Amino acid sequence: MTLLRLALAYARPYRTWVLAVVALQLVSTIAALYLPSLNGRIIDEGVSTGNTGLIWALGREMLIWCAVQAATAITAIYFGAKTAMAVGRDIRRDIYRKVDSLGALDISAIGTGSLITRNTNDVQQVQMLVLMTLNFMVSTPIMCVGGIIMALREDVGLSWLVWVSVPVLFVIVGFLVRTLLPLFRLMQERIDRINDVTREQVVGLRVIRAFVREPFEQERYREANAAITDTSIKVGNVFVLMFPVIMMILHIVTAAVLWFGGYRVDAGEMNVGQLSAFLQYVLQILVAVMMGTFMVMMIPRAVVCAERIDELLGTESSMTVRERGATALPSAGRVVFENVTFGYPGAERPVLDDVSFVAEPGTTTAIVGSTGAGKTTLVKLIPRLFDPQSGRVTIDDVPVDTMDRHQIAGVVGLVPQRPYLFSGTIASNLRFGNADATDEELWEALEVAQGADFVREKEGQLEARVSQGGTNVSGGQRQRLCIARALVARPKVYVFDDSFSALDVATDARLRAALAEATGGATVIIVAQRVSTIVEADNIVVLDNGVVVGQGTHEQLLESNETYREIVESQMSIEGAGR
Questions:
Q1: Residue of 55, 26, 35, 28 whose CA lies nearest to 281
Q2: For 11-20, 290-299, 302-311, 462-471, which range has the lowest pLDDT when averaged over its residues?
Q3: DSSP secondary structure letters along 326-357
Q4: What is the Cα–Cα distance from 221 to 205, expressed in whole angstroms?
C-alpha cells in the first residue's frame, strides 16, 4: 500500500520517537482502563458498606492513576506531533528536490498547479494522518481489546451488547470509506484545477484588465470553485450522516446496558458498582471505535494524496546525465550544434530541424528569424533546459548531456527572454551567478549592464528591496539587472535571449559596446529582434521554421539571403514610417 510504504519510509529515522509514543500510549490506556474498575469498587466496597477509609484509599489511588494517564498522554501527543511534523518536513524537502531535478518538459507534463498542491495540501493530509495515527490509532485497538476484557471481567451476561454494537460500527465505517475514496480523489484533482486557474489569473492580471476580460475570468473561476464546492458538500454530507449514526448507536447501547443491567442487579446477578464499571467500559470501547472511525475517514484522502506524492517522487527526470558525466570541463567555450532536431511533445512537426552551426570563443553569434522560427528553443538547448531528439550540442567537444546542471551553470550564463528577479535585494539577485562576488564586482557588472545609475538612486543601493518577479522595477531595469546577474558569474558562454528588447536604442548601443569589452574571449550568443543589435556580429544564423537558411555576416547575408534581407527591409520600412 502506497500510503503505508510512504509513511514507514519517512517515519523510520524517527523510530525512537515512535516507540516512545507507543509505550506512553500503552501506559495511558492501561491507566484509563483501570479507573472504571476502581470506581466500581468504591461503589460496591466503600459506599455500600459505609467504609470511609476504603473510599479515601481508593480515591487517592484513582488520583494517582489519573495523573499518570494525563502525563503519559500529554507526552505521547508531544512526541507524536514532533514525528508527524518531521515527516511532513522531509516529504516536502524531497518533493522540492525532485521538482528541482526535473526538466522543463517534465514539469509542464505534471502542471505547475498540481506540483503546488502536491507539496502543500497533499503533504498536509499525509502529515495529519501520521499525527492522528500516533495519537489515536495506537491507543484505539488497545482500548477496544482491553475494554472488552475488562467488561467481561465485570459481567459476562451483558457481553452480547459489545458483540452486537462493535460490528455494527465497523460495517458503517466500511461503507463510509468506500463512499469517500472516489470523492477524495476527485477533490484533489479539483484543488489542482482551482490552483491552476488562480495562478494563471494572478500572473496574467494585467492582460485580463487590458482586454477587459474580468467577466470571462470570473466565470472560469466560478466554475472551478463550484466544482470543488460540490465535491466538498458531498464529502460533508457523508460526515453529517456519520456522527448522528454513531451517537445514536452509542445512546442505544447505553440505554440497553442500563435496561438489561438493571434487571441483573435486581436479580442479584451483579452489583451496582459492576454495572457502573461495565457501562464505562462499553462507552470506552465505543468512543475508541468512534475515534478509529474518524481516523479511518481520513485514510481515503490520505491514500489519494500519498499516491500523488509517490507518483511525483517516482517520476524519472528526462534530464539525466548520460554515461558517467563529463570529466574534462570546457575551458574555452566553443559551442557546436551538430544536426540538432527538437520538437515539443504532441507537436505535429519539430521546432528545430537538422540545425548545425558553430559559435567560436571571442566572437558574437546572432540568431535571427521571424516569430516562431525556434530561436528561443534553440538557445535553451545550450544550458540544457531541453534535450534534442537527435543530434547533439557540445561545448569544447563535451556534450552538454554528459554534464550535470552545476557544471553547465559554471560554463553557461543565460539571460532569458522573460527576465525574472527573486524577492530579496538587488545584491542577492546579482549573486545568483556567484555567491562569493564582492560589492565591487557587482558594481562592475552593473556598469557594463548600464544599470549602475538607477541602482545608485535607490534607497539602500545594492541592498534595495526587490519584490517577487521584480515587479517594483521597470521592464528595462529588470532586463539590465538580469544581464548584470549573468556578467557576475563570468561564464565561458553568454546567451542573451532577446535581452535588449526593452532598452532604447542609445542604451542598447552603450550596452553592446561595454559587453564587447567585458565578455573578452568568451563566446557570446544573441537572439535579437532588432537588426541594429546584431549588425556587428561575427556570424548571424538565420532561422526559418526551425531550419537554418543562412549563415554569415550582415553584409554577406544582405547579398545572398532572401529571408534575412526581408527581415532587414521590413524593419527599415517600419523605422521609416515611424519617422
A1: 35
A2: 290-299
A3: -SS--SS--EEEEEEEE--TT-SS-SEEEEEE
A4: 13
Kindly tell me if the per-residue pLDDT of 63 is higher than 50.
yes
Q: How far is it, in rounded angstroms, from Cα 120 to Cα 308?
A: 12
The dihedral sign for the CA sequence 293, 297, 300, 305? negative
Under CATH, what is the fold of the domain 335-578?
Rossmann fold (3.40.50)
The CA–CA distances, whole Å, from 189 to 115, 120, 178, 313 equal: 12, 14, 18, 18
pLDDT in tens, 23-33: 888 888 888 87
CB of 395 within 8 A of CB of 455?
A: no
Half-sphere exposure of 444 (CA within 13 A, CB side): 14
The mean per-residue pLDDT over the stretch 432-440 comes to 82
Instruction: Give the C-alpha separation, 207 to 488, whole Å.
Output: 33
What does the buried/exposed string (b/e) look like for 308-323 if buried means 16 or more CB atoms within 10 Å of the residue's CB?
bbeebeebeeebebee
Question: H or E element: which one contains 549?
Answer: strand 547-552
Residues 6+ apart with CB under 8 A from 27: 68, 72
- Please measure the distance between the N-terminal and C-terminal CA atoms of the chain and give it in whole angstroms: 71
Q: Is the pLDDT of residue 18 over 80?
A: yes
Question: Fold for domain 2-313?
Answer: ABC transporter transmembrane region fold (1.20.1560)
Cα distances from 402 to residues 127, 324, 326, 379, 443, in angstroms, run: 38, 7, 5, 18, 35
**Domain span(s) for CATH 3.40.50.300 in the chain:** 335-578
Phi, psi of 524 (to 5 degrees): -115, 125
Give tens-digit pLDDT for 216-227.
Answer: 888 888 888 898
pLDDT at 553 > cutoff 60: yes
**Any idea which residue has 542609445 for its cell?**
506
- Residue ranges of the chain assigned to CATH 1.20.1560.10: 2-313
DSSP letter at 386 equals S
The Cα 54–Cα 45 span in angstroms is 8
Taking a C-beta distance cutoff of 8 angstroms, is the pair 501, 530 a contact?
yes
Bridge partner residues of 358 (DSSP):
336
Q: pLDDT at position 111, please?
A: 77
E-assigned strand segments in 372-420:
390-395, 398-399, 412-415
User: Degrees (nearest 5) of the Cα angle 84, 4, 24?
Assistant: 45
Which set of grid coordinates corresponds to residue 332? 574555452
C-beta atoms surrounding 479 within 10 Å: 29
pLDDT tens readout for residues 112-121: 777 888 888 8
Amino acid at 320: T
pLDDT band at residue 330 using 50, 70 and 90 as cut-offs? low
For the residues 36-58, what does the mean pLDDT come to? 75
